[in-house]
């Protein structure tokens, strides 16, 4: 039986957490460090995509499958992670996820062809799904200062990982495209040891086991189905910006791993800033769904601007960073909407939503490469803009079913798990 604690508004939790956010047990810092490294994996390969394509004689479409295999498996696994962790416990789920990432990141580094890397990235995605679906709930269970402090700490780890990932990928990739894979494996191994040594499970309440079919049945709920459909199309725009832009920058003279790493470091910092600070300010002043109505079209305009200015390196770089600012807001607000849209257990709702959302991201990278090769270099950005506008239309047309999404949010561990799964997309 779960306890509903919806009486506290979302904004109140953010406001109350600042004083104690840095005063945390060692176990919390161990999981937070692992979170940073896990989220680094999302953008880690960005700066080395052109190098992999050149060294392994792969086409852009084949290289973009490094994102697709990772995201497809992550998305599918997300439907089952709450079922697994509710039975074997959070610590075991975290350690299995980290161990799987170490193994497959190492194998990717030793690969001799792009097909092998694509397969090993799929295994990496499985480990990442197991880890990120459990990490924040674990942080909340061990954190000092309440769940709001833990959530802010987790969001900071998310933003830091998204920012550092491309930079580390660029620095290690300037030595070899294999470097980022080995670097991730080493850092995850350190995280594994830290969690073994520092995370204790004695006294932690065991979660109530969930049914295997629960996330699939959850999508039949109108509000959750609407938000999941919107996220499917939104993530197409997200990953056009993240995965295709490195190839758009190569003809403009920006092709080294380090240069691309710095471009996407700026993108990651932008995502972090608006996710942690700007999104709460906006939702304190207007309804969440109204924020989506406003910011989704702005993201579409940014993608159209990238299409129009595709021949200017400065314009493309600026467009990437501006896109990061908008994506940070949308990530946070969409997740908050999912938290309150239904009366389902938050872990079930977020698993269903995030599974669909990751699958949307899996479609975009190879589709963008095909469009660029067959239509024009600007066409992927146009397609991404159309997808984002479709997401906006879904939210507007489904507004009568989304009234609860504009309410207040619980501050329990269930909320923590929902944010953790949703923000990792």
UniProtKB/TrEMBL annotation:
One cellular component (GO) term of this entry: plasma membrane
Topology with respect to the bilayer: Multi-pass membrane protein
Subcellular location: Cell membrane
Key word Nucleotide-binding present: no
Main localization of the protein described in the UniProt heading: membrane
Keyword set, alphabetical order: Membrane, Transmembrane, Transmembrane helix
Gene3D superfamilies listed in its UniProt record: MFS general substrate transporter like domains
Residue ranges occupied by any Major facilitator superfamily (MFS) profile domain in the UniProt entry: 27-403
Keyword Magnesium tagged: no
Membrane-spanning residues: 27-45, 65-86, 93-112, 124-144, 151-175, 181-199, 219-244, 256-279, 291-310, 316-334, 355-375, 381-398
Record GO terms (molecular function): transmembrane transporter activity
Protein's name according to its UniProt entry: Predicted arabinose efflux permease, MFS family
Naturally occurring in which organism (per UniProt): Agromyces cerinus subsp. cerinus
